[in-house]
Model the fold of this input.
Amino acid sequence: MIGPEAGSDEEANRERGTDPESAASPLLEVEDLDVHYPITKGLLRREVGRVRAVDGVSFDIERGETFGLVGESGSGKTTAAHSVLGLEEPTGGEVRFDGQSVNELSGAALRAFRRRAQLVVQDPNEAFNPRLTMGEAVAEPLVLHGMEDADRRRAIVEDLLERVGLSAADADRYPHEFSGGEKQRLSIARALVLNPDLIVADEPTSALDGRVQSDVLALLDDVRREFNISILFISHDIDVVRRFCDRVAVMYLGEVVELGPIENVLEFPAHPYTRLLLGSVPSLDPTDQQFERPLTDTVPDPADPPSGCRFHTRCSEIVPPEDVELPWEQWRAVVAFRFTLQAGELPESIAVETADGKLDDATVRDRFDLPATLQDDAVDAGVDQAISAVIAGDLQTARDRLSETVPTVCEQRVPTATEHEAAHSVCCHRYDSTVEAEPRSWER
Amino acid sequence: MGTSPDPHRFEQVDWNEVGHSRRFVTPARAVFFAGVVLLVGLYVLQRVDTVLLGVYFERIDWVILLGTVVLTSGVIVPAVRRRELTRRVLGRLVSRPIHAAGAVFLGVLSLVAVVGPAVFGSPDLMFQHRFHAPYGFTGEASWSAECLGEVTDGEGITRYCDGTMTYPLGTNHRGHPMGHLVVEGARTTLYVLVFTAAFVVPLAAAVGIVAGFRGGRIDDLLMSYVDVQLCIPAIVVFFIGYMYWNVSLLLLLVMFGLLSWGGIARLVRSETLQRREDGHVLVARSLGASPFYVAKRHIVPNITNTLVPAIFHLLALLVLVEAGVAFLGFHHLELYSWGSTIQEGLDPSMTGVGLVVEPHEVWWVSTFPAIALTLTLVSLKLVGDGLRDALDPRRNH
Done:
């Protein structure tokens, strides 16, 4: 426990001076946030493209709530977190803290925001300046916010260190003298020293091992309860999120694909990507390997994201065109063939044989689990031509043939977020009433 | 929990009370400002012909005095303010005898360079006492018109003159005591060191940090300038200046100093690029720290491992360049540099005294400044390495 008095929420609210009206609105609102990085070329820095690190992300965080942001690396979750803190200038959209737009803050209001929103970074080894003692590092926020009384700073830091489970004497030691777990505790202490309302924790436990991870999470949870702090928790580890968060948003290539209460999203995941993430958690039970593999393993380049639904190139639940009559397994094999070719992820055996000219129809079909004939004549003809093109070494023609043969609504239209259940929204064509496709059932 | 709020608990801090006062008057700035005012005052007094302390400052002296003010406010004031750290770093620096010896030598050099000329004054030309041997050695008596020591007979008509305590290190062809020449050379060397440390190093560090921190077009611009600058041989520029202006130490320092910082700027830039995304930098930025604060507190202290040895290498390099240029004879005649003294000792027949003297016969003229120069360079290297180790808390002795 952090302190002798397990301060009630009421008390915390009173100290913060939050009136009931502002308490009703969420502490943090992120609306349609875009963070694009221009790709420039040449001396004049002509813009030739954009990396859409974060593209139209919206969520909000209530007071005292823990909100998780999950996704693979490169999904834009850290960039989103940085723009919440104003470290990254958004190219579009808005971040509101306590009803005020963060990017319009200045002067005293900006300083207050900088005090009320704190950051805990991922790697404890670089979270601290190696040349400052821990006392100096934890007191740095106080210095930066104008507390000039060194003795008072020292007293506050010593008190705080003891409350996060370290000793006052640790203030004189240097970062390299601490273990990863201790450093992460100190990192939390530093985030706490200004008595914030929001802590952005960017993968705070990913560099730690199991038991230490639980300790740090427990500390963070204690802190949240005692001081009624909201936490934006960023992680790629869905298990940690399950243990720690109240609500969660799943990000893929800069977009939120699913958002909802933790028990809904993780027990009854609606979006195929969430299902993939949940399925990829390693399990000790050998029978628990029933999840479907993604069509391809390559995460597309965020500078050139796929059209329509960004996940369609990997989606194992991709929607077939209405006129195509194929059993599910065959449909899946055909689209897997198509997107594997598109991603350039050819199995090595085939790539080598292409050079030799020894590739035959059966080998390709075997490689991609394609049956000798497909039930749909049009698709069968298209696949035949594509395979001949692969054998001839003409991958471009093969790709073109396949995209003509098996077009899908997923690449043509951008899905919109639909309310799947109460407070649980999903961004997938299978939940869109205008698309003729039912959500597939999912069992873990 | 007590009834009165405890000021030493973080949740009890009333931030409206703490407020935010940005202090413009820091001790370092105060010292810098006071120093500059003092210098301007002295300069005005000298211009209106009020001779102070009997010393007349040349332009180079003013530049070096300004450099001293910069170093005092930028290095000494912070060192005094963070006494604990300074004591620890110095303690670690002198904990290894060899580094301690280097530091002591540089300290003695600076002291001699400042106090020496005032104590010894500037001796007159004493041609009658030229080429006197150091105390305990002998030279040919025929070289000088007057022998102060005992004269002993050698083979044939050769007679030898013993060195005396009047000139403990001997004299050169003008009858200047070698001790005086070494001290004057130390002053020249100190000038080089102060100029480099006060003007060249901050410029290099500032350019490197700005380029690394801001990135983008500013980075491109600054680094392409550095590339161009690295292609210009400073010595050629110096000779062009030499042709058109009066030759002076200032010209040499400006030309070489301002064309030689590119390497350090690049080093600082690449280190800054590596560090600017570090967690502690992000946290400081999220707390609203200014770029200057981040650079001063988070970047510079963490690049000392590469920066400090590079700075001391640059200092040693410029001391050597000054000596080399003076050795070649492109120095101001009244300026006694170790380099020019070495040259006079190595080529005595060129010095216009009409004597045939072999360099080894007057070895003391070249040897003493050469020893001083060598010790200075070695000490700079040693102190650079020692300081690097001492500044890094992760290195344990």
User: Anything to note?
Assistant: Chain A touches chain B through 51 residues (CB under 8 Å).
